[in-house]
User: What shape does this take?
Amino acid sequence: MDYLLWLEATSFSIWMRESGVAFFSTLVFHSVAMGFVVGIHIAMNLRILGCAPGVPLSLMTRFFPVLWVNLVVVSISGAFLLASYPTKAFTNPVFYIKLAAVAAALFITWNLTKGVLRDPVHDTVRAPRRARVLAALSLLLWAGAITSGRLLAYTHNKLLASDPF
Ligand code: HEM
Assistant: This one.
């Protein structure tokens, strides 16, 4: 708990907590960037599952620059939100479920990028079963990441390390 007490006493953490503009603009950046990250994944996974067969699958990687930029924004804004109420997140199991879902979903993206997204034969031929299973799993993981992210505000046991109870 000592490092949480130290972190919460830093001027940056205090500023993030006490400045409504800082906290809520960070939350807006987090929400919008997550919308791009998850939105691109939904389109890509639905294409792998067979939606919009007229769209060449390999073209989905054209969205990746937007994906990587928004992953940086969602991570930085997430770290800022974390720095504002570290105890709230670190003592909440839902936070670890969320980060695990995000990490697993990104691992699947890396796997699909090395495989089905790189091979133009799948622009016109149905994606292999393994890729379709991974795409369906990825959709479930992103739904889990968003749900657990949203529930963070309601499931915490402790708000600040300095709280007496
Ligand atoms: C693409 C990945 C991510 C998704 C989909 C995601 C999703 C969400 C969602 C839906 C919320 C609720 C927003 C709201 O209350 O309006 C949220 C809040 C939050 N996220 Fe993320 N997030 C992601 C990455 C991260 C990362 C990498 C971190 C930490 C390093 C993080 C830390 C937080 C924190 C601390 C909150 C605030 C919870 C609260 O106090 O209300 N997120 N996230």
Notes: Residues 27, 30-31, 34, 37-38, 74-75, 78-79, 81-82, 85, 88-89, 102, 145-146, 149-150, 152-153 surround protoporphyrin IX containing FE (CB under 6 Å).
